[in-house]
Specification:
Helix 2 runs antiparallel to helix 3. 89% of the residues lie in helices and 0% in strands. It has three helices and no strands. The radius of gyration is 16 Å and the shape is elongated. By secondary structure, the chain is mainly alpha-helical. The longest helix has 35 residues.
């Protein structure tokens, strides 16, 4: 299942995703402030943190489900 493969990462990999996501958000913010057209960069500036938050929520739910399944066995 794709669901299992997406969330089957360790905590260090999740932290790395967050670091690169925050760097990308900062770069979008810099481009947004230096650009005449704010709308395109603003969408990306909002999208990246939302994507990180939703991924983290799914990752935590998957980890909790995996731990509960291991306890049942």
């Amino acid at each position: 299942m794709l669901y299992m493969k997406i969330y089957n990462i360790v905590k260090g990999q999740l932290i790395t995703i967050w670091v690169f996501g925050l760097i990308a958000t900062f770069i979008c913010f810099v481009f947004m402030m230096n650009s005449d057209d704010l709308s395109g960069w603003a969408i990306i500036f909002i999208f990246i943190p939302c994507l990180l938050i939703f991924y983290t929520i799914g990752w935590r739910a998957h980890r909790k489900q995996s731990i509960d399944n291991k306890k049942e066995i």
